[in-house]
Structures are given as structure tokens and as C-alpha cells.
Design brief:
alpha/beta, 15 helices, globular, four-stranded parallel beta sheet, about 350 residues
């Protein structure tokens, strides 16, 4: 019996050790100086929050909303391209021209294998960062912060991210005691594209304990699955959220959308996107404020019970820590209540 217990204990310890190793990201090459290239927006935005002065360049040009928040040194960076779907790749000559000391890569969205092969081809050191879910961010902040010589910064962001994850877990338990709430995430110019349950692009819906109104399967990692209006009607969502200005205007003006209970009840939300989109596209660290924001709108009583502060104050705190930018209460209120008219195009 004692031998059996010893064997079982040994097996349990080995399994626990293996699990701990699996959850611990590999150390990145130490690069305390030099530019760092983020091969996709998910990686580059992580770098922006940790060490904006180390960014080698951009994957695409900033929107006008970024100019309200980000420093000129970041706004003026060259566009190097990257791997983020629809055939987009980096200009490798441009990447080499800025002499990066490290490349961040991730399989969070699309193009991970292609970007890895390209970076190896041009001889860059690689830092693989797992960013598949919100739960990966605390470890990622510490991993990359340590590699870049900003460990204290990484620890601070990791702690803040973990606190939000813990709060969201409490929120979900409270929400689960009530009738399920279904949210339709409207994408595209007509609002007839969306994300399947379990998609990284719709994780904020799951994070607050709501249910994705669309049930489908998509293995592309890019998302934006086309749906019919009949599918939306059949799902009968309690809320609709979008971050596309044209989609918001379609929902507000086209008669057919008024057939939906969510529209008639005024349960249509236009998501914040300063300095860039909070919900998705890309699914970045901004989701750590997007989830509380969405909860404050969909579950106001539960939000207040868990987070214990107005979303305006939480937004100010978030911007001060993650973006090193102080907002006045009026600025924060303007950000969390965007107007679709200020976003005339899809992106």
C-alpha cells in the first residue's frame, strides 16, 4: 500500500511539474537594447504597452484616433507590414533597414508559421509569445518585460491583467445565476459578419459571462464569418455590439434591423476604439478594459458589485498604466461613448 502511495505521489508530482512547465512560457533572448519588431498587431501592441521606445515599426498606419493618445515618436514610426490575414506580409527589406534586435511572434491570429520562417530567413532572434487567450497575458507581460530589461514594468502590467481576470471570474459567477444573455457581434459594413463561439475575436463576450448569439464553426483564425439576417433573427440576441461605423448606421437606419428585439429595446452598443479598437481587430491587451466596459453596459448591477468603480474612473486608471497617458474625466467619458459618425469607414 505504501509503495502504491509512493508511486501515485511521484506520478502526481511529475504531472504537476509538467503542467507548470507547459504553462511557463519559454524565456526570450535577452535584448536590453535595440529595436524590436512585432510580426503582427497583437505582438506589436503588447510591445507598445511594455516598451514603446523599443518599437521598430508599425504593421499598418495608425488611425486618427491614435494621435489623441500615443506619443509622436510612436506615431512617426515606419510602416513595416506584418502577418495578420488576407495575404498581408512584411516588407523584409524595410524590416532589416531598422536593424531590429528581436522579433516577437505569436500564433494568436494568423500567419505565425510564415512570420517565423521569414524572421529566421533574415537572421532575427525570435521571441515566441503565447497570446491565444486573455489568460495568457500576465505570463506574456512578464516574459517579454524580462527579455527587454523592463521586468518591473512587465510585472506591473501582469499584476493588473491578473486582477482583471480575477474580477471577471467573479463577475461570471454572478451572471451565471441569472437568465443567459446573448450578444450578437456585428462586423463588416452591413453588420452581417460575425465570430463563432470560442473565437479569439469574440473572447470579450465570453469573458463577461454572456453568450455568443451565433453558433458556427470557423478554423481560419481570421474570423469574420458571413451570416444571414435570418440567422440573426433566429438567434434573437439580447444585445448587439459593433465597432464598425457603417454597421452601426445600418443597424440604426435600415428597417429590417428593427425586427430585432435588441434594436427595439435600444440594446445596441458602439464599442470604444481610442487609441485603437478595444474589442478586437486586433484582439489586444485593450480587452482588459473592453471587458469591464461591456459588462458595465450589459450587466450594470453586477459590474458595480464586482468592480466597485465607475467605468470612467477605471478607464482613466487603465490608460495611465497601460498607455502612460492621463485622461481627464471628460476625455474618458468621450472615449467610452464613441459616436459612429466619427468612424465613417469599416477601418
Amino acid at each position: 500500500m505504501n509503495r502504491l502511495r509512493s508511486v501515485l505521489l511521484c506520478g502526481a508530482l511529475i504531472a504537476a511539474s509538467a503542467l507548470a512547465q507547459a504553462q511557463t512560457p519559454p524565456a526570450c533572448p535577452s535584448t536590453p537594447s535595440g529595436p524590436v519588431y512585432g510580426s503582427s498587431p497583437v505582438n506589436n501592441y503588447l510591445l507598445l504597452s511594455l516598451a514603446p521606445d523599443r518599437m521598430a515599426g508599425l504593421n499598418f498606419s495608425w488611425s486618427k484616433q491614435a494621435a489623441q493618445i500615443l506619443p509622436k515618436s510612436v506615431l512617426d514610426l515606419p510602416v513595416l507590414g506584418g502577418w495578420f490575414g488576407q495575404g498581408k506580409t512584411a516588407n523584409l527589406e524595410q524590416v532589416l533597414r531598422v536593424h531590429p534586435s528581436l522579433a516577437l511572434i505569436s500564433g494568436a491570429t494568423v500567419g505565425a508559421q510564415a512570420s517565423t520562417e521569414a524572421m529566421r530567413k533574415i537572421g532575427l532572434q525570435l521571441c515566441p509569445v503565447k497570446l491565444d487567450t486573455l489568460a495568457d497575458y500576465p505570463a506574456a507581460f512578464r516574459q517579454v518585460g524580462q527579455a527587454l530589461g523592463v521586468a518591473a514594468r512587465g510585472d506591473a502590467l501582469a499584476a493588473a491583467a491578473q486582477t482583471t481576470l480575477d474580477e471577471l471570474a467573479v463577475l461570471r459567477k454572478r451572471v451565471a445565476q441569472h437568465k443567459p444573455v446573448r450578444i450578437y457581434y456585428a462586423e463588416g459594413e452591413d453588420g452581417l459578419a460575425s465570430e463563432c463561439s470560442g473565437s479569439i475575436h469574440a473572447e470579450v463576450i465570453d469573458a463577461i459571462g454572456a453568450h455568443n448569439a451565433i453558433h458556427c464553426a470557423d478554423n481560419s483564425r481570421f474570423g469574420m464569418v458571413q451570416v444571414s439576417f435570418e440567422q440573426i433573427m433566429a438567434s434573437d440576441p439580447d444585445w448587439i455590439v459593433t465597432q464598425d461605423g457603417p454597421a452601426m448606421r445600418a443597424i440604426q437606419t435600415e428597417p429590417r434591423w428593427k425586427l430585432l428585439r435588441a434594436v427595439r429595446d435600444g440594446h445596441v452598443l458602439f464599442a470604444p476604439q481610442v487609441p485603437f479598437r478595444w474589442l478586437d481587430r486586433p484582439p489586444s491587451f485593450m480587452r482588459f478594459i473592453a471587458a469591464p466596459w461591456l459588462a458595465s453596459r450589459v450587466f450594470p448591477a453586477e459590474y458595480q458589485a464586482v468592480f466597485r468603480q465607475p467605468i470612467i474612473a477605471r478607464t482613466q486608471q487603465f490608460f495611465a498604466l497601460f498607455l502612460n497617458h492621463k485622461l481627464t474625466p471628460a476625455q474618458a467619458e468621450s472615449i467610452v461613448q464613441p459616436k459612429a459618425a466619427d468612424y465613417p469607414t469599416k477601418y
